[in-house]
Design goal:
single chain, about 170 residues, Immunoglobulin-like, 2 domains, 4-stranded antiparallel sheet, 3-stranded antiparallel sheet, 2 helices, elongated
Length: about 170
């Protein structure tokens, strides 16, 4: 019973709001006239959003005895936003084997990325080893490393590209 009273109240309010619009037949003769019960808009630095609650009429047939509104539809408006370029190229850098016994390899499968360097750190942040990655696959000597976990930062001209985790047996 409560819901019935609520629905009846909302229906009465909505119909009174629609009747307050000064709707003219000439307005409905345009290709997409609308009878709105409510609406709003919002705007910020990322874009603009607007909405309306009501019905859109696409065709109106009228005579002295009746008015027929054909094709009550919701319009679909699509706007394309400008896409920003990908900030970084696809980075395909990996290391193997893991866990490491004596040597491990860093492989660069990204042909556009060149002039790579690496820095090998222990978990305390101490720099253990560094060097240049000369080819698409570079062999790194890990014989002097103790059994522990290490972090390898791969960089291109000082810009960090990828972090690899290495486990030394």
């Amino acid at each position: 019973m409560k819901y019935f009273i609520l629905v009846l109240t909302l229906l009465a309010y909505t119909s009174s709001q629609c009747q307050n619009n000064d709707l003219k037949i000439e307005d409905l003769n345009s290709s997409l006239a609308s009878l709105n019960a409510s609406g709003g808009s919002s705007k910020n630095e990322f874009g603009e959003f607007s909405f309306s609650i009501g019905q859109v009429f696409t065709n109106l047939n009228n005579s002295s005895n009746y008015n027929i509104s054909e094709g009550v539809h919701q319009p679909e408006e699509i706007q394309m936003a400008e896409l920003l370029p990908d900030p970084e190229p696809s980075i395909e850098i990996s290391s193997f084997p893991n866990p490491v016994d004596d040597y491990f390899f860093i492989e660069n499968n990204s042909p556009k990325i060149k002039n790579l360097t690496y820095q090998l750190f222990d978990l305390y942040g101490k720099l253990m080893q560094s060097g240049k990655l000369q080819q698409s696959t570079t062999r790194i000597n890990g014989t002097r490393l103790r059994s522990a976990m290490y972090v390898v930062n791969v960089m291109e001209e000082g810009r960090h590209l990828k972090t690899l985790k290495i486990i030394k047996r």
